[in-house]
Design goal:
mainly alpha, elongated, about 0% strand, Arc Repressor Mutant, subunit A, 2 domains, 9 helices
Length: about 190
């Protein structure tokens, strides 16, 4: 009877979880094998070494954070605001946000990871720019809106400030109204 191998995607998903919870140093073959309840021998049937796994972890994060999000948003449809909000919801979901934050931290210390993050952020901003073009005919205004929207999405969980009598949801809703208002509509 043949022994079933742990599928390659399970190793990658375990690597993503380890990255999210402990950064790149937590992505270790032995600890991943333990978390999967398997021996580490099966790992080498898919990956040459740990750096090969880390590359696949980053490639999977990139695809899930860009192409997969855009494809799903476009399939679901809606107006520009609905699609932009859905893209943010998917991109910064509880499943992807911790990985995104871990990659951002890792990129501060690794030039290759920083370059990949730049590529991912450029793809995200390009899609947002495409969605927001209908609300702003001024290139400077459009770029500012994209930058602000993306900054809010990335930084929101990192900001601990309170908002007086307003909830964070109230403040974020006000930000969305301003970012998605037609440029000629005023504040």
């Amino acid at each position: 009877m043949a022994i079933a191998r742990t599928p390659r995607p399970r190793w990658i998903d375990a690597g993503l979880q380890a990255l999210a919870s402990g950064g790149p140093d937590a992505v270790q073959v032995e600890s991943l094998a333990r978390s999967l309840g398997v021996s580490k021998g099966g790992f080498y049937g898919y990956f040459a070494d740990r750096p090969a796994l880390l590359e696949e972890v980053l490639a999977t994060w990139e695809a899930r954070s860009t192409e997969d999000v855009i494809a799903r948003v476009e399939q679901e449809g809606g107006d520009a605001m609905a699609r932009a909000l859905r893209a943010a919801e998917l991109t910064f979901s509880p499943a992807l946000r911790p990985i995104d934050l871990a990659v951002r931290d890792w990129a501060r210390r690794d030039a290759a990871v920083a370059e990949r993050l730049r590529r991912v952020d450029n793809a995200r901003i390009a899609y947002l720019r495409e969605l927001l073009e209908p609300v702003s005919t001024d290139a400077d205004d459009l770029e500012a809106r994209c930058f602000l929207a993306f900054s809010v999405a990335v930084a929101d969980p990192l900001i601990a400030a309170e908002h007086g009598t307003r909830t964070r949801a109230d403040v974020l809703a006000a930000v969305q109204r301003r970012l998605f208002a037609r440029a000629d509509a005023g504040p």
